[in-house]
Design brief:
Blueprint: H1 16-35, H2 41-64, H3 70-96, H4 102-130
Helix pairs in contact: 1-2, 1-4, 2-3, 3-4
Length: 131
């Protein structure tokens, strides 16, 4: 239901433009998901938290690309990592609470994990180049 319409990329071949597109596609998929959640207080709270963190992934990735220094770039990527990890948490809660069947979230959860892995690898690379 919330399947991935964007192209799969490998960490080693991910370009800046591709990552911008991928994080935006992730946010758009989460927007669709949150709009389809049941009208309950719990779904509203979790949906708002997920929407905030997932849309922040792409916004902060873009901000990282405009970093004033390598340290600023690394700091902003760390924010992306935190927001992606938080998004994974909210997706897990939706699945584990039964609000959304796990099967419908599996691809979105995998995409979230892959984005997180790419960002972690980018942070490690940037730190290694700094030293």
């Amino acid at each position: 239901m919330f399947g991935n319409d964007c192209t799969r990329y490998h960490v080693n071949t991910m370009t800046e433009d591709a990552m911008k597109a991928r994080t935006k596609a992730f946010a758009l998929r989460v927007i669709k998901l949150t709009e389809s959640l049941p009208a309950t207080r719990a779904a509203d709270v979790i949906g708002k938290q997920l929407l905030r963190s997932a849309t922040s992934v792409g916004a902060n990735y873009r901000a990282s690309r405009r970093g004033k220094s390598r340290a600023d770039f690394i700091h902003k990527l760390a924010i992306v990592e935190e927001e992606a990890d938080e998004s994974a948490y909210w997706l897990e809660l939706l699945a584990e609470s039964g609000m959304v069947p796990h099967a419908k979230l599996a691809d979105l959860m995998r995409e979230c994990d892959e984005i997180t892995a790419i960002i972690v690898a980018s942070i490690r690379t940037a730190k290694a180049r700094r030293d």
